[in-house]
Amino acid sequence: MSISVTPQRSGASPEQVPAKPNRGPLAGPMNRQALIEAAREEFISEGAQVPLSRIAKRARVGQGTLYRHFADRADLATAVFEQNLHQVEEAVSASATPYRTFFDLLTAQVSEASVIIELVAGEDSTPQAGRLRGQVGRLVRQVHEAARTSGELKEEVETRDLQAAVSMLCLPLAKAQAVQREEEAYRIRRILDAWFLRG
User: DNA-binding residues per UniProt (predicted)?
Assistant: First the structure.
């Protein structure tokens, strides 16, 4: 079964998005969610450095509204990634193969999350980085426990091994050219799977 947590691209450019209806009292939460969804699509299609003005236009809000909800690009990307992590957590919980599900979904999200991959994997001391590392760490512990219980992992594999694997997978993929990403992901996953999975 294939699980996808990223939406299909609409195909519409920001210039083709129709005018936004009046959202009334719900404008704040709805605008925030619209910005997250627009950022997700733009990160996928245009990359991490897409202009924030383009994201605002796709969400059908002004740039002032964008900055009321998100202080900067990393803040917006963090919100996208946190939402994705929640979906990954649900998918892992429901999976009979939690290790494979986790790394499959993580690989699929690298293109939209590349703007913050280094925050998660590096030594950055910003609040965003610390919060994300904590969330990823908790999820990796969940994956390790579930995969050990299911018999998916070798006995000697520890949580810190899977934490290292996240960096080993995500950092090269985040920096790879889009046309090379699939081949690079396959190569890295083949190595990681050989280390961690039972034969």
Answer: 51-70
What confidence tens digit (pLDDT) does each residue in 132-171 have?
Answer: 888 889 999 999 999 999 999 999 999 999 999 988 988 8
**What's the whole-model pTM score?**
0.72
For helices 73-93 and 98-121, the axis angle rounded to 10 degrees is 160
Inside any domain, residue 21:
no
Please give the Cα distance from 22 to 193 (Å, whole number).
50
53 lies in which domain range?
27-69
Distances (CA, A) of 47 to 110, 136, 156: 11, 22, 38
Is residue 172 situated within a structural domain? yes
Contact 120, 129 (CB under 8 A): yes
Residue carrying the six token digits 């990796």: 140
